[in-house]
Specification:
By secondary structure, this protein is of the alpha/beta class. The chain has 14 helices and 12 strands. β6, α7 and β7 form a beta-alpha-beta unit. The structure holds guanosine-5'-triphosphate (GTP) and magnesium ion (MG).
Length: 340
């Protein structure tokens, strides 16, 4: 899964890219960088400690830094599965986030509109294709999209068509992709972060999470060892680096949940799409598990901690055997039983 960092020139995209990927900023930072990053998860660390596992493997996402937003890069960012939109909140930038957000969303809406219109024209030219029900279906769907876009609404707010949209391939509508907003506060304005988050939430479209951070500070923190970090945070009265929060929110925006596989050999976090079942979880771990799936042993992370391990969970009745169609929940610890 790829998440692309987008925003206007100088908003702090590259600084955030370095903060999240824990890579140093060297000289003039480039755009178009890609990094695979581990998703920090305290639960996984705890499980690893419990099992004294030799290996701890985090779930991962791919992160891309992009050049500043202009129509020239729209083709490039269509490949992303979701966006982190960076809005600057420095002394010399406008305080008007609404404007910053609207202008990006409007560009996305216009770009999608152009795509829809082009496709509708092509369908019309092929005319008289009433006998082709697929084309007719596509036209009806695109008409619905177009009238929604004409009302200046992003496609992500058009509900009930997600399933149908899947049948029309290749559009990659920008205003339909999941998005989160990261307000990049200057060091001086960081104290306003909570207010900024609140006021933005009431302004952006439903389902777009907002978070405020200081990219430069996060970039510095991300390169420190745990010991250094503790001292630094105490000295400056910082409660937590929000790097982890940003990455987890990005996963959430992508519609991902995590489940765990555990053991003394390896503890590992895996991503799954919200709503996917135990059979799909088995496939994520190994195709053999998918093909020869029998049952999934499931314990929630909270129960595992509460009852201090599998044995305690069994005694408490918190240990379950589930079938293929069980919908996996975030934090499930799963052991797949598969045939030989
Ligand atoms: N004060 C302050 N300045 C920042 C912060 N983050 C970024 N900047 C400054 O903003 C400028 C742009 O930062 P970049 O991260 O390169 O921004 P960008 O969005 O990647 O810029 P382009 O790739 O050129 O579009 C740099 O001079 C940074 O030092 C921050 O948290 N606080
Ligand atoms: Mg940049």
């Amino acid at each position: 899964m790829n998440i692309s960092i987008i925003g206007k020139a100088g908003s702090g995209k590259t600084t955030i890219f370095h903060a999240l990927s824990r890579t140093p900023i060297e000289g003039k930072a480039g755009s178009g960088n890609v990094s695979i990053i581990d998703v920090p998860d305290e639960r996984l660390e705890n499980l690893s400690r419990f099992f004294k596992s030799r290996k701890t493997v985090h779930a991962r996402i791919e992160l891309t830094d992009t050049p500043s937003l202009n129509s020239g890069i729209f083709q490039q960012i269509r490949q992303a599965d979701a966006f982190i939109l960076v809005l600057p909140f420095f002394e010399d930038t406008e305080k008007d986030f609404f404007q910053g957000y609207r202008s990006v969303m409007n560009d996305f809406i216009l770009s999608d509109m152009a795509q829809v219109e082009q496709r509708l024209e092509r369908i019309a030219k092929q005319g008289g294709k009433r006998e082709n029900p697929l084309l007719q279906q596509e036209k009806e769907l695109l008409d619905v999209c177009l009238s929604h876009l004409n009302e200046e609404k992003p496609l992500m707010t058009l509900k009930g068509i997600e399933e149908k949209m899947r049948h029309i391939r290749g559009f990659q509508f920008l205003s339909q992709k999941p998005m989160m907003i990261l307000v990049n506060c200057s060091e001086e304005r960081l104290s306003l972060a909570a207010d900024v988050e609140d006021s933005l939430k009431s302004i952006v479209h439903e389902g777009i999470p907002c978070i405020a951070a200081c990219a430069r500070l996060e970039a510095e923190l991300s390169l420190m060892s745990d010991a250094e970090l503790g001292g630094f945070m105490a000295e400056y009265g910082i409660k937590e680096s929000i790097r982890g929060r940003i990455i987890r929110l990005a996963c959430d925006t992508l519609g991902l949940i995590s489940f765990f596989t555990v053991g003394d050999d390896e503890c590992r976090a895996w991503h799954l799409k919200k709503g996917e079942n135990a059979h799909e979880a088995a496939r994520t771990v190994h195709t053999d598990f998918y093909n020869k799936f029998i049952r999934a042993e499931v314990v929630s992370y909270d129960d595992f901690i509460k009852y201090n391990g599998f044995i305690g969970c069994k005694k408490a009745g918190a240990w379950r055997l589930e079938g293929k169609t069980y919908i996996v929940k975030d934090g499930d610890i799963i052991t797949i039983r598969a045939g030989a």
